Amino acid sequence: MTLSPRARIAVLVASFLGLLFDGVELGLMPLASLSVSKNLLGDAFTPALGGDWFARFTAALMLGAAIGGITLGDIGDRIGRTRAMGWSILVYSGFAAMGAWAQTQEQMLVLRFLVGLGVGGMWPNGIALVAECWPKASKPVVSGVMMAGLNTGILTLSQLARIWPITPDSWRWIFTISGAPALLGIVILVALPESPEWLASRSKGRKPAPPLRELFQPALIRTTLAAIAVSAIPMMGGWSASKWMIPWSDAVAGAANAQYKASTQSWWAIGATIGAMSGSQLAAWLGARRSYLLISAGALVTTVSMFQFTAPLRPGFPAVVFTQGVIGTTFFGWLAYYLPSLFPVHVRSTGSGLAYNSGRFGTAAGVLGAGMLFGALGGDYSRVGTICSMIYGFGILAIWLVREPA
């Protein structure tokens, strides 16, 4: 059984939009964190405390995304890709909208964790659904389109913030409109076709082992561990290191130039959209190992350069931010192309979700560690970003775990 061209397009569009709104949630707190903290903490706010809370909000989202990605990936293999994807969108949009009513930092922290549950669940189910509904010949292109969705969401958010700046006196509006994707979640649950490959795998008559348990059986455990390793490095590097560019821009530009942080995120997101589109093509062209090696080396060099050789408000800063966005997110197009090919259909969503989101456990710890480092270094964004960017260097070692997809 195959889907009609119209149905395949509907699957791609729905999955793209689900990841676009996923990207909005990922980009929201880097832009809004300092404004939220200044408003909710009042006179108790200090720059060091603002950086610490940014780390906490990021860690909460990453921890929720790790749990949600693994859990909802498993659910996607049990009840279907579209149902798990629809519920993921309802979860992240509903709890994001509730942030508009947060009265304390602790309330916002809990809500960011709950948003993360849905954010994590969207990726494995959307990626698995598209991989199973489109022909293999189209795989590099559609994988790139999917990952571009995440960064298009971040770009869209940054453009909104340039038009209507997020400030300590005006930040709740962005959380209110974050609830709009719930409509997409409902449409997916009601109308989107299910993966024919998943339906075929459920009709074979045998009762499969629980998907998560099967990933750690002898036949798949080496593949699972390798997938986790190559997924963790870009996730930890991106959130523990490069994302500090946004609060750094906010802190340097200050209230006198409230749009500068949004402009910085815009430059990064434009580059990231190009990078995400390119990653799957690069993997198909050069092979998994060679492309991952080049991306790792490039991400290390550009991230260190961003924190050491330029700074917010300097003329060259946007260009370096753009370049870091291109190279640092090429990883994620690579992952969208590579991960689904590693796992059999009946554990594909679980395997992709486990690999992609396990790195978020390390990211949560890494971001909290970066927050403590930020305080210990007296709020020095440049030094924190440089030290944390070293994680990209491990990609040069992890590449030897990777095998070429069949």
Note the gap between the termini: 23 Å
Order of SSEs: HHHHHHHHHHHHHHHHH
Helical amount = over 70%
Please tell me the overall pLDDT: 89
Sum this structure up briefly.
By secondary structure, the protein is an all-alpha fold. It is built from 17 helices and no strands.
Structure write-up:
It is a single chain. The chain has 406 residues and is an all-alpha fold. It has a single domain (5-191, 209-401), classed as Growth Hormone, Chain: A, CATH 1.20.1250. Helices cover 77% and strands 0% of the residues. It has 17 helices and no strands. It has helices at 5-41, 47-79, 81-98, 105-133, 139-163, 172-177, 182-191, 196-202, 211-214, 221-240, 245-253, 260-286, 288-308, 317-342, 348-376, 381-388, 395-398. The longest helix has 37 residues, at 5-41. It is globular.
Index terms:
406 residues, mainly alpha, Growth Hormone, Chain: A
List the helices and strands and how they pair.
Blueprint: H1 5-41, H2 47-79, H3 81-98, H4 105-133, H5 139-163, H6 172-177, H7 182-191, H8 196-202, H9 211-214, H10 221-240, H11 245-253, H12 260-286, H13 288-308, H14 317-342, H15 348-376, H16 381-388, H17 395-398
